[in-house]
Amino acid sequence: MHQINRRYFLTxxxxxxxxxxxxxxxxxxxxxxxxxxxETVTGKIKGIKxxxxxxxxxxxxxxxxxxxxxxxxxxxxxxxxxxxxATQFGAPAIQSPRRNxxxxxxxxxxxxxxxxxxxxxxxxxxxxxxxxxxxxxSGASPGQDGSNLARNFDVVVVQTNHRLGLLGFLYLDEIxxxxxxxxxxxxxLDIAEGLKWVNQNIAQFGGDPDNVMIFGESGGGAKTSxxxxxxxxxxxxxxxxxxxxxxxxxTTRVTAAETTAMLLKELNIAQRDWRKLLDVxxxxxxxxxxxxxxxxxxxxxNKNVTGMRGRVGGFGPxxxxxVLPHHPFDPTAPEISRNKPLLVGWxxxxxxxxxxxxxxxxxxxxxxxxxxxxxxPTYGADTEKLIAAYRKATPEATAPDIFVAISSISMMxxxxxxxxxxxxxxxxxxxxxxxxxYKSEKKIPGTDYAMGTPHAMDISFKFNNEIPPRDGSQPKxxxxxxxxxxxFVASRHFAELWTTFARTGKxxxxxxPEWPAYNLEKRPTMRIDTKCEVINNxxxxxLAMWRSIGKV
Length: 552
Prior knowledge:
The chain has helices spanning 6-12, 147-153, 165-169, 173-176, 186-201, 219-227, 253-266, 282-291, 351-357, 368-379, 383-393, 399-426, 458-462, 486-504, 540-548, and strands spanning 29-30, 35-40, 43-50, 53-60, 83-85, 110-115, 123-129, 156-160, 207-217, 239-243, 251-252, 318-319, 342-347, 431-436, 440-443, 450-452, 524-528, 533-536. It is α/β, with parallel strands linked by helices and 552 residues long.
């Protein structure tokens, strides 16, 4: 089986954004039929008032991006008359059909808002970017429903759909002219446009446009990493959280141009005739995207490679020197966000998600000889000493335990530590490093191995969607989180830490110890569980080994 690492992960994941303001005199009004109306700068919308939360779905935040707008900035969003329905989710970006969502569409610039009330109360705004690498996902995934965060913690939650894959990140700058400048970053520019919408409109939804937190898990963490360094996004947010998706480096122009050349060759289109791409049906482009080499849209540190070039293939943000001026966290934390606090971290058992997804049972039968064979294709001559370091640090661990630990930290942990260290060295706003560690008892199918804290399990916990039913009925089993009632405590801790950070810039929660900012002396890490604890210099022996082989 192919060894999972961060590069593979962000494209392989299969789960499943102050110019103009409006007068503060307008108040949303609740209609007798349970609907609620609100004003935006382009017109009135009608949402649903449900159990103490006003929900607005499928709200347009950008204009057309199909036809002659493909690979370009959106057309201006046109005002409408009357009251536009905002009770159904908008179309997700082009991808395979998604369950219980509209059909995917090129014109996908819609967002969703959850708020306790449209009352100008100036609540903190939590702006979430969905996961799915840069190729799948939407702002309508049920695990990230914002109702409980809004209801239980008095915040406003916003999520966008935005361009993905080839349609969001095909680099045409060098062959298509000024109109297509930034083409390799359209998906991230869409999110920045969503943030601009929040700045212009969120006061009408009870949110504070001057107190906005951006956050995201998995591919959403990498998107957040990019937003954290982008001039187009900088005016519209105040703090950030990068969760199980540390985007330290992104695709270079050279690699992106080679990927574009490969695509054109596969389509039998000469570079001078690139405009023919505008006439290719979106479904055909999606099929072609799947045929290209499935490699990651960002670059890992490698001590044996000079100049850090990625392999050709894959679609994701491009370090074009303009929209994305440089790698998000290489060689340093971005100066543009020096004064913006940052949360960053990962789940302790990230890999078990991928084992579940890909029906990997063999990894949980191996002995230490088998572990050596599994890791050698990835780590070569470093394999033996890497295993030895883990056996010394965790003497009770089995071979599968060490495989999960190595795979999990190499995917998400090393980049997270790298980001925390670089942010601490900047001596600006604080960074806070975490590990999520609540253990699910659910087994990986076909094995007796518990999933523990798999990749993506944190989503429902941080959104406080691990919670007893409000009607007093028997709780249902959580998809990843299992059946134990303790999960409700861990979810409360996670959600309160995040919402307090959104409100104040410092994470805190009842019954949770004070969380110190990350520093290079004690290196404190908050372990989030039913009982949270601060652990200094966590994984010190393991990280020393990773540093010795040039991976941090």
